[in-house]
From TrEMBL:
Pfam families in the cross-refs: Phage_integrase
GO process terms (BP): DNA integration; DNA recombination
Species name: Prauserella marina
GO molecular function: DNA binding
Gene3D superfamilies assigned: Intergrase catalytic core
Protein name: Integrase
InterPro entries assigned to the protein according to its UniProt record, in alphabetical order: DNA_brk_join_enz, Integrase-like_cat_sf, Integrase_catalytic, Tyrosine_recombinase_XerCD
Coiled-coil portions: none
Length: 264
């Protein structure tokens, strides 16, 4: 039973309670089969009464007190500059989007400079035998969203657009779609040995959610901005919410990272 419990709690901590429940059901069925055929005396998984709640960090790696220091790590890194991670981290601190969503943004359909909006409409995935492609939908219907980020985020996009030779907002070094897995690897390499070792792109989503929460936005407004599916079933199924992020833009504009401000 200790081994089964350890496996299930690991699944819970890494993938959430839903995945842990599915894993538990599968393990229960496997062990039940073992009992029927005499390989096990009893089913150890059935003895696990509760998996409890997912462990939470005592404090987030990125928060209003540490955000500037985290961004400084990238602004001061030659590797981050070479791998084009500096703008990406700055933008992530204002958008809080998923990595695959960010890399799927293109200049023609995703960015509207006149309206000051970003349209998240897909995610980058790798297809066996094909390579990297933009999947024409995000993780959930709620992820298909048009947001109005703070002006300093749009300024970064404008600067990049002025010198871009690629159709993608954050392309690879040769102008093609960028691999999310490789990008995460480069981020890990930049922060290795710093106070932010272990930084994951999802940490920016938590940071943005915290800023918006502190600013008094509702759970629905935060979910709309980040593309979260669940706040209430009815709202999750309402797929056309128009442009979101008006109040989010105001809240995040007041949290302009010092690093971004300094670089202009």
């Amino acid at each position: 039973m200790p081994i089964a419990n350890r496996v299930l709690t690991t699944v819970r901590d890494k993938n959430g309670s839903g995945a842990a429940k599915q894993a538990r059901a599968v393990l229960t069925a496997i062990c039940a089969l073992g009992v029927r055929h005499g390989a096990l005396d009893d089913n150890p998984v059935r003895e696990i009464e509760s998996l409890g709640k997912k462990r939470r960090r005592s404090s987030r790696l990125i928060n209003p007190k540490t955000v500037n220091a985290a961004l400084d790590v990238f602004h001061q890194s030659e590797d981050a500059a070479r791998w084009d991670l500096v703008d990406m981290q700055d933008v992530s601190s204002g958008l809080g989007s998923r990595m695959g969503e960010l890399l799927a943004l293109d200049w023609e359909t995703s960015v509207d400079f006149d309206k000051g909006t970003i349209w998240f409409h897909g995610t980058v995935i790798r297809v066996t035998g094909v390579g990297l492609v933009v999947q024409d939908h995000t993780k959930s219907p709620a992820g298909m969203r048009r947001v109005r980020p703070p002006g300093w985020v749009m300024d970064i996009f404008k600067r990049r657009h002025a010198v871009s030779t690629s159709p993608w907002c954050f392309p690879s070094t040769v102008g093609t779609l960028r691999d999310p897995d490789n990008t995460r690897k480069y981020i890990r390499l930049v922060v290795k040995g710093t106070a932010f070792e272990g930084l994951h792109p999802h940490d920016w989503r938590h940071y943005v959610a915290g800023v918006l929460d502190d600013a008094g936005l509702t759970a629905r407004q935060i979910a709309d901005y980040l593309g979260h599916e669940r706040v209430s079933t009815t709202q999750d199924e309402y797929m056309e919410r128009g442009v979101v992020g008006e109040q989010a833009s105001i809240a995040l504009a007041s949290r302009l990272p010092a690093t971004v401000q300094r670089d202009g």
